[in-house]
Design brief:
five-stranded parallel beta sheet, about 50% helix, 8 helices, alpha/beta, globular
């Protein structure tokens, strides 16, 4: 990766369910991560809509690193206005028509989102990923064509913009984890084991040495805080809890940007 993510860095995750999974892993590890603030977004146009709204409403320090996870090039257009909608809001299907974004359209939406972020914060870095989740409702062939469109668009954006890099989550799941035991029972969504595997790949490729050190220090404290005692009122557990709180306080002093 051309850059490294620092401990407790401000981050934004926008995209499919896979963005939710990875973003929540970052949040659990005490990165200041905002994950799909307006809901899951599957296509590049909806990702752009989220970025616009986020920048309009942001009342805090802007993110340093942004992950976009592209899910599909299928969009729904409100017939009355021609507007691409992020969800149909339980309105009648007859009000909408489904269409496919071309490679060029996907590229343009992604680039516009990146440039808006760059305008707000010159040193922002964007990581593009394509969700490994297949869309059975389209049929697996159509799903593969949709992913191919997104992959081609992501490649073009990466080549043209210096602050954009591509992380191969789609390829890792489909080329390294080819066994269905790495999927949930629906055989479409990645299992927790797969999410953890991708997370470790991201740690290895994207995190700074300082961030990796932070994770090592945070891990035993996180595990201690999650511990469920048999005797919560015992002196031993109260002493254990106090010692854990003291370790946590020392960690916060060492990393003052660490969120609650």
């Amino acid at each position: 990766m051309p850059f490294k993510i620092a401990p407790c860095e401000r981050m934004l995750f926008v995209g499919s369910c896979f963005a939710d999974n990875i973003g929540k892993k970052f949040a659990m590890e005490k990165f200041r991560a905002v994950v799909n603030p307006y809901g899951v977004m599957y296509n590049p146009a909806s990702i752009l809509h989220t970025v616009k709204r986020f920048l309009e409403e942001a009342c805090q320090e802007l993110p340093k690193t942004v992950f976009f996870t592209l899910g599909t090039n299928h969009v729904y257009v409100l017939k009355e206005t021609g507007e691409i909608v992020d969800n149909c809001g339980k309105r009648p299907q007859r009000l909408f028509e489904e269409r496919l974004l071309s490679v060029g359209e996907c590229k343009d939406y992604i680039e516009e989102a990146v440039k808006l972020l760059e305008k707000a914060s010159m040193d922002v870095r964007v990581v593009l990923t394509v969700s490994p989740i297949r869309y059975a409702k389209y049929g697996f062939h159509e799903s593969a064509l949709s992913k191919a469109t997104l992959l081609l668009a992501a490649e073009q954006v990466e080549k043209e913009l210096n602050n954009v890099t591509y992380f191969p989550a789609y390829e890792i799941v489909n080329d390294e984890l080819r066994d269905y035991r790495f999927y949930q029972p629906d055989m479409l969504h990645p299992s927790q084991q797969t999410v953890d595997f991708i997370w470790q790949k991201i740690v290895d490729a994207c995190l700074s040495n300082e961030a990796k050190d932070f994770l090592k220090e945070w891990k035993p404290i996180k595990e201690a805080l999650a511990h469920k005692p048999f005797q919560p009122d015992s002196v031993e557990y109260r002493n254990f809890l106090q010692a854990t709180k003291e370790r946590l306080q020392r960690l916060r002093e060492k990393y003052p940007n660490m969120p609650e």
